[in-house]
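can u do me a favor
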């Protein structure tokens, strides 16, 4: 599991808002 992957996932969710 990549750390950057999870971080990018959060940013993606916020951006989707």
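np, heres the sequence
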């Amino acid at each position: 599991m990549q750390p950057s992957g999870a971080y990018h996932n959060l940013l993606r969710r916020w951006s989707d808002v």
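The helical segments are 3-16. hope that helps!!
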